[in-house]
Every structure is written in C-alpha cells, then in structure tokens.
Design a protein that fits this description.
single chain; alpha+beta; SMI1/KNR4-like; six-stranded antiparallel sheet; two-stranded antiparallel ribbon; globular
Amino acid sequence: MSGLKLLRQFVDSFQRFDDMLVVDAAPLDMIIEQDTDEWDSWSNELSTWKPIPFETSPEALQSIYTRIAGRFPTMYEQLILSYRWFEVDLKIIRLFANPSGPGLTGLTEAIFNDRILSNVLLPAGFVPFAKAADDNYDSICFDLNKLTQGDCPIIQFEHEAILSHSKIGKQWKRWDSFRDLMTEVVFLEAE
C-alpha cells in the first residue's frame, strides 16, 4: 500500500475508535456541528471534532528537531505536516494531539508535557508521541537510535521507574516501525 494511501486510511480510522468529543475549547475549524435530535438533552452542549487536512511547512519541524536531536520517521512527518487532530484513542495507543495553531506548537507541548518523562527518554534517543491504551501512563516512543530508511521501532516504556527513579525501567518493542503501527490501526476491528 502506498504511503499516502496508508496515511489517509490511518487518519480516516480515528472515528472508528474514538467518540471524538471535544473536551476543552477547540479551534472552530475542527468542530462538527451536532444534530440535536440525535442527542439527549444532557448532551446538547457537547460537540465532536474531526481531523482536518492542514498543510504545514516542513520548516516547522526544526523547532522540535533542535530539542530532540533527531528526526521523526518519514511517515510521521507526513502525518503531522498534513493533518491536525486532537488526542485520539486508537484502542492500541492514544496518539498525542497535533491541534490547529501556529507551527507545531500543540504537538511540541504534548511531547514535552511531562518533564520527568521527557528529561529521561529524550536524551536516550526515545521520543514520546503517544501513550499506551486504556488510560495507562506508559509512554509510546520512537526509537531514534535505530532510525533506518526513514522509519524506526516503536517502544513502550513502563512509567513507574522513570517517574519514581528518573531511569528507564521495563520496555517493550511494540512495532517494528511506524508504518507497521499505522497498518495495524487501519486493519483493526472496532469493538
């Protein structure tokens, strides 16, 4: 499957797994108006969001790359430069948000949100881009130490050792590449 087709199918799959409810204030370009006939009276004020195509200049990556001392996998670069979305639960991971706004500010904030995790993981070459499923606080990271041919393994890090002792503890290789992760999401059945 071509990279662009896989990318579109990956983004299209967001709505299969997440209810896509707007939790906080959201940029208007990502909000979908609700048909109030479909909602109970208690939920009339809830809105949903959708990922939107949004071309971002590749130069926006430089502000992140200077802080992570490496590059993202090519397909992840294409994803963040081509779409904007809120944090999305894909059942096997919770992908960090890349919301509307200047450059990649929202994504950068998500990557560096937990200073303890980022201070331990980033110097070791691991870049968080998601959390584990089921409200688990484990970080899902790109292993930039093994970046070859524009892709790298995806590693899950148990958060307790990092938060309690500022050191990397248990870790699991979850996918051989970001392409493999996207493919699994695309073909995963919704419950």
